[in-house]
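Subject: for your reference before the review

Hello V.,

The reviewers asked for a structural picture of the protein, and I figured it would be easier to keep everything in one thread rather than splitting it across files. Below is the amino acid sequence we used in the manuscript, unchanged from the supplementary table.
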Amino acid sequence: MPKTRFTAADVAAEVACLRATCLGHRCANVYDINARTYLLKLSQSGSDAAAASDQAEAEGRKTMLLLESGTRFHTTQFSREKARAPPSALAPR
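And here is what came back from the structure prediction:
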């Protein structure tokens, strides 16, 4: 049977891998994919990001981190459909 939940060991291993990728980045935006899944757009902060001369280099300094509650979290390059407004703004009153 495939694994469906992260254990503490899984989280520790993933955090160790993400340290090299995400350390020194700031959260530029948060997207609500669905009720349990969020996508964080991280961008490199500091003088290194300001020194980027062209758009391609600046895009290379962005990281997308996918978080699914209780199940997984990892970086991704896959482009997902994002809502134009937060769910609370979409709900009728």
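For the response letter, the relevant points are probably these. The first strand starts at residue 25 and ends at 32. Residues 37 and 81 are 12 Å apart (CA to CA).

Happy to draft the paragraph if you're swamped.

O.
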